[in-house]
Design brief:
This protein is α+β, with helices and mostly antiparallel strands and 390 residues long. The protein is elongated, with a radius of gyration of 24 Å. The chain folds into 2 domains: 298 residues, Alpha-Beta Plaits, CATH 3.30.70; 76 residues, no CATH class. Strands 2-3-1-6 form a 4-stranded antiparallel sheet, sandwiched between helices. It is 44% helix and 17% strand.
Length: 390
């Protein structure tokens, strides 16, 4: 069976209620297809209207009444707020694989007057509430998707066409008080979370939701060797210098055991000066390889700027004191020193394989966001590569 593209749109209400992580965890673990891309949208009136026009479909297993509820929901809840004109956040996730559309749709689920199960995303996070007369009193789909491949193609092409004007790292989508000064910070969910399909990425997003911050940018990113070198460049010299004493002590112990005599302290310091920078450089190479799949020394010059083989999710969080709030939930670099309930204590293994990265200052956040370029429109690129002309 040929590869298909499928999508899931997480609704403004689901984002507002911080249900994002749970939804993502289910989609990754239960669909059996690859999370290939992600992008935040803030639909304008035109996109909301055109998208709403596509959801009445003969291929949809839901009855006409539910389809009309979905259409009206899109017009009412994805379009800008009527009073303020402020656009609302929507998260688009792209999935790729065999039979991807049916698999994603099955995990998201459908609504009917008879169904009362609890297996799907909509069973858990959506609402289809009827009154005593069997009329719909409240409707919240939680996630929107396509019922069939032809619907997915039409809807993805539509989203891709508006993905520059109505998507990216969103601006002016959150209302703040007059004395509130929002910050932005970058979070990277590292490659160790994507070795196999697991709920770890979604579970970590759930942890970050404790901060009360808002996701305004997301992308699935494969960091190039060049990007990893620039991203972690500030720690390179630190590694070359701060590990001298550690290396000297380890080498001294090995040599004394092997050679059978005591090495004086003055010579131990010399060992550190000689081997510390080499060891630090090796550690830097390991970090770059872990993040991109290729270390600088083993990467051909022509490939150094090419996307790496390792996947991560990059998120931009916005809000008051965003940097410190995210760092508090993340925990210190060494998972063994992280407090219970922090992300690195729960999901990290060691200083390098420590689940996630977060910017340590607003200035570094701007630098790191520039390197990763969360606003780069990979969503449109993936859709265009799959379907051809948009």
């Amino acid at each position: 069976m040929p590869q298909q593209l499928a999508y899931a749109l997480i609704s403004p209400y689901s984002l507002h209620k911080s249900r994002t992580g749970g939804i993502i965890a289910r989609l990754i673990t239960r669909t059996g297809v690859e999370l290939a891309g992600a992008r935040m949208f803030a639909p304008g009136t035109e996109l909301a209207q055109k998208y709403a026009e596509t959801v009445i479909s003969a291929t949809d297993p839901q009855d006409r009444g539910v389809q009309e509820l979905t259409r009206d929901y899109i017009l009412r809840n994805l379009a800008p707020e009527p009073k303020s004109g402020r656009r609302r956040r929507v998260m688009a996730l792209l999935f790729r694989g065999e039979d991807a559309v049916r698999r994603v749709q099955a995990v998201i689920g459908t609504f009917s007057r008879e169904r009362r199960g609890g297996q799907t995303i909509r069973d858990t996070y959506g609402d289809f509430i009827l009154d005593d007369n069997d009329d719909v009193r409240y409707f919240e789909p939680a996630v929107l998707c396509a019922p069939a491949a032809e619907d997915a193609e039409a809807q993805l092409k539509l989203l891709a066409r508006y993905s520059d004007t109505d998507g990216g790292v969103l601006e002016d989508v959150i209302a703040y008080g007059p004395n509130e000064k929002p910050e932005r910070t970058l979070v990277l969910l590292k490659p160790d979370n994507f070795r196999f399909a697991s709920g770890r990425p979604g579970n970590m997003i759930d942890f970050f939701s404790r901060t009360g911050l808002f996701i305004v940018g997301i992308t699935v990113h494969r960091m190039s060797t060049a990007q990893a070198m620039e991203f972690y460049g500030p720690v390179r010299e630190i590694l070359r210098t701060k590990l001298k004493d550690v290396v000297a002590a380890r080498v001294k112990g090995i040599l004394e055991k092997e050679l059978g005599f005591t090495i004086p302290s003055s010579e131990e310091r010399n060992l550190g000066e000689l081997l510390g920078p080499l060891f630090g450089e090796n550690q830097f190479e390991n970090i770059v390889r872990f993040m991109s799949g290729r270390s600088p020394s083993e990467c051909e010059p022509a490939a150094i700027t090419q996307p790496g083989t390792e996947k991560c999710i990059a998120l931009v969080y916005e809000g008051v004191n965003a940097v410190s709030k995210i760092r508090d939930v993340l925990g210190p670099t060494d998972p063994t020193k992280a407090p219970p309930g922090s992300i690195r204590r729960e999901f990290g293994s060691n200083i390098m394989v420590n689940a996630a990265h977060a910017s340590d200052s607003p200035e570094n956040a701007r630098r790191e966001m520039r390197i990763v370029n969360v606003g780069d429109n990979r969503f449109k690129q993936i859709v265009g590569e799959h379907y051809g002309a948009l």
